[in-house]
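1st attempt posting a full record on here, be nice pls
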Amino acid sequence: MGADSRAGAAADAERRSGHGGPAGPAAPGEHGEHGHRRVVVAVFAAGVATFAQLYSVQAVLPALAGDLHVGASRAALSVSVATGALALSVVGWSALADRAGRVPVMVASVVAATALGLAVPWAPGVGALLVLRALQGAALGGLPAVAVAYLAEELPAGRVARAAAAHVAGTSLGGLSGRVLSAAVADLAGWRWGVAAVAVLGAVATAAFCVLVPRARGFAPRRRGTGPGLAARLRRALADPGLLVLYAQGLLLMGAFVSVCNYLGFRLLAPPFSLSQTVVGLLFVVYLAGTASSALAGRLAAAGRLRVLLGSTAVLAAGAVLTLAGSLVLVVAGLVLVTAGFFAAHAVASGWAGARALPGARAQASALYTFGYYVGSSVLGWLGGVAHDAGGWGAVVAGVLVLAAGAAAPAALVLRAGRAAGSMAP
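the predicted structure (as tokens):
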């Protein structure tokens, strides 16, 4: 039996036993066809709001570094503190969501983050900037911590993978729009106005999410003294070796991807390319490759998640090697491959983690995947800057290849072994 089928059966059993409350929550699928579309569009908008704001400073790191008189790795802390704070916040957000509900937590998360995002551009110095970015990252943690759990509870099992892919597609479009918009405006008016423009975009996407997201029907708030506590649910989410491998995919592949995105701009602004900030920002149009590849991966995953995951990781690694070329055309092609490979792998791994987890631990599994994902962005993304300062772009690419290999090897061994044991069909 596949994981989605087992998860659905377990969820039905839990509802029949009354663990979801006196009457139990509604079965997934009871929103109807129109409601299903609203769920997908809402989580797509939420992905746009999250990634547009989280990475708004990434495309303007060279300008920020010059204005604040800091090096590449210190400038990149404006990305790392946000993603690090997000990583630290997700378990707490998931616990709150088990009591207060998925939708209220997601709405509070994006609204608070957007309010902080509007203040970020006006930070007087690097210290205040880093504090505001850390607070914004912590606020943003509520949405990725529970989004996949929300999808698993609200949609029929057969639609969860595609809906998770739509959410990932929204994150890729948010990353694209945030980077391109901030870079273009920064070239005209400075990096602060560039980041401010993205904050406004985030506010629009946040409003769309708040209006569209349907009230949860597949979830009942957890009451004190009923069901396993947070520690027990975390143990469930950590007991499965396959889930640990999936968390590692988020950690390592996100670290590889962010290293490319953080520091490729420094290479392209310098000779022999000598591109302008606007042109470098426009290169992030390749995020459309991530939008397409994540949707494609969601469809292909039904025929074999493991093959799609490993193939996507290989595409990312090949793209990183291609960025070493002296031709701008080849560098851009490499960036396309890195982006497409990463988002396809992320779409598969994130959806797989939500489907594989037991129903009572889904929010925690989603939170732990998100924790690894953003620790990768924060810590490994910053270490990419250390490598860049020490050895240039070649050192960054070498680090990316190590991370890709570190993700692929345990996936090939553990997830394939899980299939052989009958625990999870890849």
